[in-house]
Amino acid sequence: MSISQPFVAHKFGGSSMRDAERIAHVAATLATRAGEPQIVVVSAMQGVTDALIALVHSAAARSDDWREALARLRDRHQAAALALLGAHAEATVAWLDQEFANLADVLHALALLGTPSREALDLVQGLGEVWSSHLLSGHFKVRGDASVWCDAREILRVRAEELGVMVDWPLSQAQFDTFRERQPSTRYVVTGFVARDSEGRATTLGRNGSDYSGAIFGALAAAVEVHIWTDVDGVYSADPRAVPEAVLIPELSYHEACELAYFGAKVIHPQTMAPAIERQIPIYIRNTFNPSHRGSRISAKRSLEPPVKGVSAFSGLAILNVEGAGMIGVPGTAERVFGALRHGSISVVMISQGSSEHSICCVVREAEVDRAERLLVEAFTRELDRGMIERIAVTRGISVLAVVGDGMAGHPGTAARLFDQLGRGRINVRAIAQGASERNISVAIDSADAARALRAVHAGFYLSAQTISVGVVGPGNVGAVLIEQLREAAPRLRAQFGLDLRVRAISGSRTLAISETGIDLAHWRDTYAQAGDGDLDAFAKHVHASHLPHALIADCSASPLVAAQYPKWLAQGIHIVTPNKQAGSGPIARYREILANARESGARFRYEASVGAGLPIITTLRDLIDTGDRIDRIEGMFSGTLAFLFNRFDGSQPFSALVREARQLGYTEPDPRDDLDGRDVARKLVILARELGLATEVADVDVDSLVPAEFAAGSTDDFMAQLPALDAAMQERLDAARANGEVLRFVASLDASGKARVGLRAMPASHAFANGKLTDNFVQFTTARYNKNPLVVQGPGAGPDVTAAGVFADLLRVAAYLGARV
Length: 822
Ligand code: ADP
Ligand code: ASP
Ligand code: MG
Prior knowledge:
Number of strands: 31
Largest sheet: 8 strands, mixed
Bound molecules: adenosine-5'-diphosphate, aspartic acid, magnesium ion
Oligomer: single chain
Number of helices: 30
Strand content: 15-25%
Radius of gyration: 36 Å
């Protein structure tokens, strides 16, 4: 093998080094890259750094637990040594014994001191890398592969600066060159994370710093590529743990990677890019568990499409807000704020200042906020005393969400889209900052909202489908058909419109079926049949999951009890679509509460299917009103059952026989009185009246019932038996109408003054209402614009298929409002 071939640097994270089996896999993966000189930089075995830090603290706290924890850590490493080195393990086992004996001495000293010194922490937390790299290097030799172990503490010199740990390049390069001269090899196995400071003390590059080590050693060895091996296929458009729909970014620029990493994309340490940029070394992020995947490539190449590449969230932060009218126009206040913080080595994650200069807001780590607050109070004592600064306010539990992409700069509307998504997800934005590069917009939000925000924003930029958590109440007639329609449409909605409707709960009056990721709609009946008990509160709570951006309930029941929940649900921000008439025609006070709560929370309440099933009646009426038309009168036939009866009633059969037939065909309610008494029609008329802004109640409607008062009591069978008693009177009304060339129709009417009537009317045979088919519904709007020739909407207005379709259409309107491309 020619040594003149360039090196490639490979860095393996903790997950790749978890145990002997994974470490052996690392060696095997690298060995397949035959002929490639390698710099192999490794992290500690997974969890070891945390364990070492905990040891320091528990020893310093004089708790005796540390001895046992230390023994466990030693056993873990000894076991790995035996597994990796087999018969050749002896020397390494002895070396590990010595290492752990030394560590025990340090911990013992800490226990005597009773305080965890910075130096001890720096020394101890880096030991995991020393051990893991030693094991891997030994394993290569046992395999018969080239390997020289390189302890980075003998090479790397660094100093801590404001922007992070900086490398002393000339000294480090000289030490590395000397090391290589003394021990030439085609493979060096290097300890990640560790280094020495300018005083020669062992230190580290900061948590997650092995990535940075990988790039530094890549640079020192003049490597042509740096591969960072981890447990995911590359850099995703968001943390795949938080947003499972995140997509892999195949190519991103150094700057994009820096921004994502800085704002919390743990997959790569933000400083990793610096040495690579300087020498134009491409970085690949790859998966040890899937080594054939190319991963993400990070390089100088910029691509402006899509404008937003990814979203990340940084948690554990707090906001410091310096407020006061006395700051206005006073130069240098911002400088003093940041000067004070810099002086205390407090790093400021984000800064935002309103142009009024009335307040300066900065975001710092929550762990540092108390100290930061003290520093600011000290720096501004005078101003606080004089009231020029009113207060320094601290808000904890903050996350910063950052949207990142090189293409954002030339792409107007990105910020608008971001805030739109946050608004529709009902996420309160506490502070905003946009980098001058326009490569990043960051917003500070409450941590409790972070998961939801991440998903909403991610979907809002079409990086993933717009997900809506859907709950269906009442899986009877309409509900069951709606679920079937959702199942059939789902693949198309997803592919065409990026809309992901997940039915996560189905509730009956007592039964509740739920699923975290979405009920498999192909088998929903079985799932529902096996479901346990649950009430509407449990149902709504599940639908309104904190991690999903939007929640929607489709109430397919006709229940007043469900309608009674609407005010609460809407106030929580849950959207509602329904064919249930109870809310729209129930007490006006509740109706108003529903509208007010929806307005306040931004949740949508849509009920098109409550009048005329799938026919566009309410939508048409709203369009007329919204475009400034004046509604003079609404007339209609809103009962499919009554339409059917009077279409057929021509005297050839008695009216009672027609009712019996309709009942047999399933065109009536189980008790036909519920159709014949006109109350259902009255409810629909009330719903329309309220669209006009009228405060109509059902009791205000003058209803001419077809059921005589004396028939109101008694069973359905009694009623059916009594029904022929109505035939004569009905025939008389028909004859009278016919004598005038008219027909009988059951009509609802409303005028602009609020006069509402429902009852049987004789209508000219030429009237639109006289010429419907079967169960056709009608509504006729007489308006300023549609005056001589009113606007008529006609069509089948009942039946589960068209009603469910009406509910579905409302659902899609809500989705479109939320940003789906429907
Ligand atoms: P390692 O131990 O290999 O250094 P880390 O746990 O430090 O691995 O980083 C990998 C993890 O980073 C992934 O498992 C993933 O959950 C997380 N992560 C956060 N943001 C992103 C992102 N945008 N793309 C990919 N992974 C991410
Ligand atoms: N082992 C160190 C840590 O856990 C460094 C690293 O893995 O990158 O922070
Ligand atoms: Mg890492």
